[in-house]
Amino acid sequence: MKKLYFITGSQDLYGNETLKQVAIDSKEMVAFLNEKLGDTIAIEWKPTVLTNDGAKDVLVAASADKDCVGVITWMHTFSPAKMWIRGLKALTKPMLHLHTQFNRKLPYDSIDMDFMNLNQSAHGDREFGFICTRLGIKREVVSGYYQDERIIERIRRFAHVCKALDFSDGMRVAMFGSNMRDVAVTDGDRVESEIRYGWNVNYYGVGDLVDVVKKVKASEVDDMMEYYASKYDINTDDIVAVREQAKYQVALEKFLKRKGISAFTDTFQDLHGLKQLLGLSVQDVMSKGIGFGPEGDYKTSALMAVMCKMAEGKKGATAFLEDYTYDLTEGSELELASHMLEVSPVFAATKPKIEVHPLGIGDREPPARLVFDGIDGKAIAVSMVDMGTHFRLICANVQLVKQPQAMPNLPVARVMWKILPDFVTGTEAWIYAGGAHHAVVSTALTVEDIRLFAKLTDTELIEIG
Known about the structure:
By secondary structure, this protein is of the alpha/beta class. The chain is about 40% helix and about 20% strand. It has 14 helices and 20 strands. The strands form four sheets. Strands 11, 12, 13, 16, 17, 18, 19 and 20 form an eight-stranded mixed beta sheet that branches. Helix 6 (about 150-170) packs antiparallel against helix 12. It is elongated and about 80 Å long. The two termini are about 35 Å apart.
């Protein structure tokens, strides 16, 4: 299980009895946090830091520990901050500075200088905070009594984001084909993506996938068809087309597994050797948390995989969606946030149906796809764009809604939303910010999750609504 180091700061000025109590108190705090957060993360207690070497040793150890995804620091007493400099400069894992104290209330009747010397978080955490700011350390600061539910949930959010960042570092992304020709917003600097986020993004010819497709056995297709039948309603007589998508999914999952790939893209301008555009196969793969971006949009595919990781263990749906078309009825404006094919069934309000219809783009046979109406609920839509000098995240609050009328002639998944706070403000702000027509939409995450991700990766964030 992934873990966070719990690092307590003090110094050797106070004597052995005080330091013994610091250790006892910090161990009790860690036991409490593990009881509350054990389903999300393990908290590992570390001996009290007293010296320059001790600070460096524990923070270097955290950086080198593959199971450690971040650190929690807390100054029980006053801990001179110059002794933390070398350690903080060496730290490569995210940090949460917990500004708390062991006791909730002051013992007004008995408080003396021994108590004051032992319980100095109001003093020590300010010293530690200064040196973090002076060094430009990106961290989350959480203030309040450590047993309060509000504090526990903020630590939990930090843990989820840390696990997503750990997953992101070294994540492999495949581009089957390149970026859609002449499209700007889906493009990006792949080298900078690896420097900043750890995303190893590489091109693969679609022929690399076609080679695997050709080797798929009929029995493997049969097994995939049984899986489809158990999960979806097969609402077509064109079983040959559905089996073609089943073959694609078998091949796709094999390819991704062999290469250790967590996210991928394709483009309808590069389908050489494929009879259909990947439809049903991509939709189902997305439902398993694999990131996807159409038209060569590697940023969206990678962001989707990271946000799915961030949302693990939370209720809700997270996947790629695309801005498509509007209902501009004044005061009731809605967006149909669908796509040609690739909408994940995690957004399905009812059991999806497998259907086969002509696509009208890509010059291939009619592809099998999932057709369904979308869920409703509060959500966020997050877009990542490359501004040339830096990456930018745009996060909008949206309200997923049930479609107001049936759409019997639209043979794709139908997900609709209202952008907040209202259509004019939301859409104009999105366009001013340079937001793409691709986004990762999540009912499991909130803007606070994206804000923390942006902070810890030093990514510009524009929030809407």
